[in-house]
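[audit] Reproducing an earlier prediction to check determinism. Same input, same settings, fresh worker. If the tokens differ from the archived copy the diff job will pick it up downstream; this log only records the rerun itself.
[audit] input (169 residues):
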Amino acid sequence: MSVNLTEQRPPAARPVAEAVPLAPLPALARVRRLAVEVIKFGVVGGSGVAVNILVFNALLQGLAWAPMTATVLASVVAMGTNYLGFRFFAYRDRASRTRQQIVLFFVFSGVGVVMESLLFYVGYHGLGMNGPIGSNVAKTLSILLASAFRFLVYRTWVFQHGTKQGAAA
């Protein structure tokens, strides 16, 4: 009796439990990814707001510095801490640190500081929000409004996905 070694068995059918799950809809995946990005931005931004408010109050209330000096310096200190948070937490999955990324971050952050300072000036001097509580309300509102700008530019131009940054280079 001879055995045919070239004979092959038909592949076994996959059990239903091992079926490949359907991929989520692309639109749903984009919304989910954006939601995670917004949450991470909020965590880093929230810690930056805390640094900003603490430094602002230490300078304005504790050391009696001029309001505009206190707001600008507090924003600059928060900018430095935010860079670290965005680079190593919120956008760590994006392209590696480059000179262009650092320059763009600080240029756009500088624009954000100017926006924040102008908004604070309007609230503090223009709307009379100049007491201990009023100055903090003016500072917080100016931070929130400038943060919308920062979110858009950071995700669009500063911390781009590798494919976008590679295409731009």
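[audit] rerun output stored. Observation attached for the diff report: The first helix runs from residue 26 to 62.
[audit] end
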